[in-house]
Design brief:
two-stranded antiparallel ribbon; globular; Aminopeptidase; alpha/beta; binds zinc ion
Length: 393
């Protein structure tokens, strides 16, 4: 069995978790096409924490990491004091996107594949994306991409009939917006084609979209437009300021936890870059809150513990024009973590090779992500409590 999980496999694992350890609550909301955004809880302690994965569905490693972490808690492979903490897990923030991207993966890579064989696909995907990235910088061409061509039979029709509404909508979207062949493998948006992280009232993209500018994604994805509904980047569905149901649900959920409990922090997982973002000095006015020196220092201190444990780079957030920067601003201490140092989601982060003489970047990518970040959460939680207590006093 390989390491990749598709949407149904994720749900099988989640539904199979010991409910005495991790309990499934009622969903925090539903998507436009009616999929639940599931919520699970570990512990019953005073201090509340939120952990999310898969805002960008093509960053599949973030779902898998959160789910594997939950599993470790259930198996008692790791121990977090359940009398001290209450941990809320939203492992699939963007269910529609996850259905799309994992259906694309399954059009080529079957579930029953051996681990070794799966590795060859991940490596091929990585290398193809890398080549396209080089070509894009050298020649600037927007031709079809090798890594997308691997998945050129992944059209909306491969979606199971359980997803009929989504499938019909996608078929129309592919046609209307002339989406590139094979681009379901790059799907980061929700099912409507809106990028949840860009879907924010002050997205920097809104003005450019309204001016009719053609905005392309970069490097190996430079044949994908961000100004139109599609795989990534598009900030709103039909009119500016329109917030998608996933974001509404997540924002309400953060508010509910912070109003009713001792909310000490959250971990938002993306991929990739091996980066932990802290609250930096805003280049333009932060529209939600006046970030004080104290808030920035607290956020930095916690982020540093996480970065030291993983060896990730600490990076300063300076531009506050995404959904996650809003969550970070309004709910310190929130960390945004980019898993994995190799480019090209959704498959490269599943590489787990120990090639002789390979650079560190390549060595055991998957295992390192899972192990280092598991330890980092455990190390960071007590520091979140300390910071929280200091702020309160
Ligand atoms: Zn992302």
């Amino acid at each position: 069995m390989g390491k990749i999980l598709d949407y149904d496999e994720m749900n099988e694992i989640l539904d199979g978790l010991d409910s005495n350890v991790i309990k499934k609550e009622k969903p925090i909301g539903h998507t436009y096409f009616g999929y639940p955004i599931d919520h699970f809880v570990y512990g019953h302690g005073k201090y509340h924490v939120i952990i999310t994965g898969g805002t960008h569905s093509s960053e599949l490693i973030s779902n898998v990491f959160v789910i594997r972490f939950m599993e470790k808690l259930c198996n008692k492979e790791i121990n977090i004091d359940d009398n001290l903490y209450t941990i809320h897990f939203i492992p699939i923030v963007n269910p529609e996107g996850t259905i799309i991207v994992t259906s694309a993966i399954r059009s080529l890579i079957p579930r029953s594949i051996s681990d070794e064989e799966e590795q060859t696909y991940c490596l091929t995907y990585y290398r193809n994306s890398y080549i396209e990235g080089e070509y894009a910088s050298k020649y600037g061409d927007r031709d079809c991409k090798l890594q997308q061509m691997m998945f050129r039979y992944a059209t909306p029709n491969i979606l199971d009939d359980r997803h009929k509404l989504l499938k019909d909508y996608l078929n129309k979207l592919f046609k209307d917006n002339n989406l590139p062949v094979g681009c379901m493998i790059n799907w980061s948006s929700n099912g409507r084609g809106v990028d949840l992280n860009s879907n924010i009232e002050n997205s920097s993209l809104i003005k450019r979209v309204e001016n009719g500018e053609k905005i392309y994604a970069s490097l190996h994805l430079n044949n994908i437009r961000r100004d139109k509904l599609g795989p990534l980047g598009c900030p709103y569905f039909s009119k500016k300021g329109e917030i998608e149901k996933e974001n509404e649900a997540l924002f309400n959920f953060y508010n509910e936890i912070s109003e009713n409990y001792d909310f000490i922090g959250s971990f938002i997982y993306h991929s990739c870059g091996n980066i932990v973002y802290y609250l930096g000095k805003d280049k333009e006015d932060n529209p939600w809150v006046n970030l004080t020196k104290g808030m920035r220092k607290d956020n930095y201190d916690v982020a540093k513990v996480y970065a030291d444990e993983t060896g990730y780079k600490l990076d300063e957030m300076e531009i506050y024009t995404t959904m996650d920067s809003k969550l970070k601003s309004l709910f310190p201490v929130t960390l945004l973590i980019e898993l994995g140092g190799v480019r090209a989601t959704p498959l490269s982060q599943f590489m787990d090779l120990n090639l002789e003489d390979s650079s560190d970047k390549f060595r055991m990518v998957y295992s390192k992500i899972i192990e280092d970040n598991t330890l980092a959460i455990m190390k960071t939680l007590p520091v979140m409590i300390d910071v929280y207590k200091n702020v309160k006093n």
